[in-house]
Design goal:
By secondary structure, this protein is of the alpha+beta class. The protein folds into two domains: about 1-40; about 50-285, YVTN repeat-like/Quinoprotein amine dehydrogenase (Methylamine Dehydrogenase, Chain H, 7 Propeller), CATH 2.130.10.10. Helices cover about 20% and strands about 45% of the residues. The chain contains three helices and 23 strands. The longest helix has about 40 residues, at about 1-40. Bound molecules: calcium ion (CA). Calcium ion (CA) binds near residues 70, 199 and 250.
Length: about 290
């Protein structure tokens, strides 16, 4: 009888041990799963999407394959791409009249452009050259060399940022154009690829997503998308639905808190209201 009791007690201890072990393993597996979910940002919050108001339309030359756009002293500066058609233009906004045109050699495919300090810098797609111009005359004053593809560029003070079609932005030395650091752009932890034309806007960095109807408003410190601007209505009005003549070209008007957007070969340039509460909130969250 005592022998049976000892055997039962031993068995109970074994069962209790395995129950405890099982509980520990279950808790551990749960913790690992939660950490994995957090690490992969499955639980992270996606940036809100806003469809801003279109305030007006301006003329745009359908012969311009827009790769970069910015405002300087009340005039549009625009970089046009394609080999044999690449150029840098200065345009009067209301009339669309081209005031000055600088044509590039036929083997060069121009990409984004911006005012960097007191000169205009224009990227090239695969030539590894950033072309430098005097802003008033578009006289070429030099060039930088860089590795990889050039897509978009945005400059503000000492912050010169370029894109190459990946999810990574490159911050560059404004004097040498050498890479200083890269920043991966993410939404809910997921890399946002195809970053194209860029623009600084109130402390945030705006990026056109190639072949998308959206513009990302990016925190330049963390790389997180703070807000998506849904440009579906702009694309609908443009009448363009193919994969080449897509939304591209963002110019920020800081004084009016407005955005100008257009696309490759579009006949209109659209004026976008950025005074909305959600847009202001995204900027203040930094
Ligand atoms: Ca721009």
């Amino acid at each position: 009888m005592r022998t049976d009791c000892r055997a039962r007690c031993a068995m109970l201890r074994v069962v209790a041990f395995f129950c405890t072990l099982s509980a520990w393993l279950t808790a551990l597996a749960g913790a690992v799963l939660v950490n994995a979910l957090l690490a992969s940002s499955v639980l992270a919050e996606r940036a809100p999407v806003v469809a801003p108001t279109i305030l007006g339309e301006l003329p745009h030359d359908t012969g311009v394959f827009t790769q970069g756009l910015f405002l300087h002293r009340g005039l549009f500066y625009e970089s046009a791409g394609l080999r044999g058609q690449s150029r840098l233009l200065i345009t009067e906004p209301d009339s669309g009249q081209q005031i000055l045109v600088h044509r590039l050699p036929p083997h060069i495919f121009a990409e984004g452009a911006d005012l960097c300090g007191d000169e205009v810098v224009q990227l090239t797609w695969t030539s590894g050259l950033a072309l430098r111009y005097e802003p008033d005359t578009l006289a070429k004053i030099g060039e930088f060399r860089y590795q990889g593809q050039g897509w978009g560029i945005a400059c503000r003070g000492q912050r010169v940022v370029t894109s190459d079609g990946s999810a990574n932005l490159t911050f560059r030395d404004p004097k040498t154009f050498k890479s200083q650091r890269t920043l991966t752009v993410t939404d809910a932890g997921v890399p946002v690829r195809q970053l194209n034309e860029l623009e600084w806007a109130g402390g945030l960095l705006l990026a056109n997503i190639w072949r998308s109807h959206r513009i990302a408003a990016i925190d330049p410190v963390t790389g997180a998308v703070r807000l998506w601007l849904d440009m579906s209505e702009v694309v609908r009005r443009s009448g363009q639905s193919g994969t080449e003549f897509v939304l591209n070209g963002i110019a920020w008007d800081a004084a009016q808190q407005r955005l100008y957007v257009t696309g490759k070969g579009w006949n209109r340039l659209y004026l976008i209201d950025c005074t909305g509460e959600s847009l202001q909130r995204a900027r203040l969250r930094r």
